[in-house]
Amino acid sequence: MKYILVTGGVISGIGKGIIASSIGTILKSCGLRVTAIKIDPYINIDAGTFSPYEHGEVFVLNDGGEVDLDLGNYERFLDISLYKDNNITTGKIYQHVINKERHGDYLGKTVQVVPHITDAVQEWVMNQAKVPVDDDKKEPQICVIEASSLLCSLFQLGGTIGDIEGMPFVEAFRQFQFKAKRENFCNIHVSLVPQPNATGEQKTKPTQNSVRALRGLGLSPDLIVCRSAKPIEMAVKEKISMFCHVEPEQVIFIHDVSSTYRVPILLEEQGIIKYFKQRLNLPIDDQPSDLLMKWKKMADRYDRLLKVCSIALVGKYTKLSDCYASVFKALEHSALAINHKLDLMYIDSIDLEHSTEVENPVKYHQAWQKLCKADGILVPGGFGIRGTEGKLQAISWARTKQKPFLGVCLGMQLAVVEFARNCLNWKDANSTEFDPDTKKPVVIDMPEHNPGDMGGTMRLGKRRTVFKTPNSVLRKLYGDEMFVEERHRHRYEVNPELICSFEEKGLKFVGHDMEGNRMEIIELENHPYFVGVQFHPEFSSRPMKPSPPYLGLLLAATGTLSAYLQRGCKLSP
User: Fold this and answer.
1) CTP synthase N-terminal domain location, by residue (predicted)?
2) Going residue by residue through the chain (573 aa), what tens digit of pLDDT does each one get?
């Protein structure tokens, strides 16, 4: 097993996840089996109870793991299926060690950070690195490990709480490099080269300080990946090489590019395959296979796109794009598949509500202007009552104005509520999440998934959805399969006792769970595309295999859905 540790310095959020994913993609293109592990130093057991504004979206895995969004990057880039244990947190490690102590596994010894916590980290990494993540179920050969912002806070005067959280992991990998041996362990350090507007000069001092601090902790970078807004000059590369004690070819530049599909290409152009082959003694050729050429063609095609398709995303976490990272990627994959550039317009659902019209008429009218000019409307998942009336307004607009619409999880549930209120005339119809005493509970909670504790108790992970009818649009988009398996994350469901009333009026429940009790897919008759899904299809979308519900939305938004279905669900050249 070969281990590649990706650390970050200077600031967080400079693209370690994309760079780690890109490195994995390059090695996979050389015929190697690659897995990935993400380390987060927070004490939470997992990401499930976070607000999206804390760390971005919560990504859900096949096994129900609620994890950091970077695992979504790994899955999309590498086309693999990871597990909850591929996301290590401080909380998981301490819980594991404390449980062993309670069980008596340490035979009365004093349990300490060193060696017990650090040993637990190393054992976890070694065990999880062996777990197959490809369809062929073979053991991986390369494990890419991303350590989340463990070092960023060390370079600020006085430090912050972050360095305290991350230190056990840093020490664990200082020890691990010797356990794994040099020919099996490589450290890549991602740093920032800022360019102040006042001088226009690219500054290397932050990177120098970052590498110096890393060495002081016992880790020496084999590659330094420098992030910058613009391409870095050769003189800057030579300066970093000289002051950071590495060869010039060990300094890699990644500037801001038009799309993340370009990042593996940039890395490959700078000789990273040849370096890994020599440094880790890998049995590979110097040139990548057809897989990386497909990435290059995809990146070139993305840059040449001229047609634009606009989608309005109506949600409550619109101030930070990472809150809907997988939704954005699923839309982008689908837009690219039909040769369109995506114009995603984020609309805060509260801005569509009457209260905003009273308090801030300009913001209200701007939000409605965005919604009206969009080619399609998407209402994603979410929790809580805030902003739900605005989402209902957007759904009503999509239904009555024949605008293509996709509702995901809560978006599907609210589509049912909107239809009940405006088509069945059940004016007090609601979800028990928002009104426990509603007289028309069209969406109800699932008692077995609402035990009191919040963490890890929802209906999670990959589950089967069975199609009830062959006439379903979504069934055709899925290739006329009898069932699909998608990932779920919800605590509430459509009330199965009321579905007959909806179907009589044209809102069809075309998919349900294996027992036939839980409603999974809705479709509205006599509408270009009005679809709701209880699952989260965005988590399964891949750059070269777009998610069918999102693809359907983009096809309908561009007026090409009917032609696509007539061609037998084949994309035009």
Assistant:
1) 2-282
2) 999 999 887 777 788 889 999 999 999 999 899 999 999 888 889 888 888 888 789 999 999 999 999 899 999 999 999 999 999 999 999 999 999 999 999 888 999 999 999 999 999 999 999 999 998 999 999 999 998 655 544 433 332 333 577 888 989 999 999 999 999 999 999 988 888 888 878 888 888 988 998 888 899 999 999 999 888 888 888 999 999 989 989 999 999 988 889 999 999 999 899 999 999 999 887 776 778 888 888 989 998 999 999 999 999 988 888 899 999 999 999 999 999 999 999 999 999 999 999 999 999 999 999 999 999 999 999 888 899 999 999 999 999 999 999 999 999 999 999 999 999 999 999 999 999 999 999 999 887 766 666 666 788 999 999 999 988 999 999 998 999 999 999 999 999 999 999 999 999 999 999 888 899 999 999 999 999 999 999 999 999 899 999 999 999 999 999 888 888 776 665
DSSP assignment of 294-346: HHHHHHHHHHH---EEEEEEEES-TT-GGGGHHHHHHHHHHHHHTT-EEEEEE
DSSP conformational letter for 111: P
- Here the tokens at position 213 are 């601090």
CA 173 to chain centre: 26
Place of tokens 């004690």: 245
User: Backbone dihedral region of 341: left (phi > 0), alpha (psi from -120 to 50 degrees) or beta?
Assistant: beta
How many independent structural domains does the chain possess?
2
In a domain, 194, yes or no: yes
Compute φ and ψ for 443, nearest 5 degrees: -125, 125
Same domain for 271 and 331: no
Number of helices and strands (H, E) in the chain? 20, 21
**408 neighbors 343 (Cβ within 8 angstroms):** no
Same domain, 239 and 349: no
Is-contact 82 75, C-beta < 8 A?
Answer: yes
Q: Are residues 378 and 513 in the same domain?
A: yes
Q: Report how far residue 552's alpha carbon sits from residue 569's, in angstroms, rounded to the nearest whole number.
A: 10
Within 10 angstroms of residue 455's Cβ, the number of other Cβ atoms is: 12
Catalytically active residues are: 409, 536, 538
Do 526 and 465 sit in the same domain of this protein? Answer: yes
Whose CA is closest to 395, among 547, 492, 561, 530? 530
> What sign for the dihedral angle of Cα 48, 54, 55, 58?
positive
Range of the domain at 265: 6-202+210-300
> Which residue matches tokens 């696509």?
564
Label each residue of 123-138 as H, E or C: HHHHHHHCCCCCCCCC
**pTM recorded for the entire structure:** 0.92
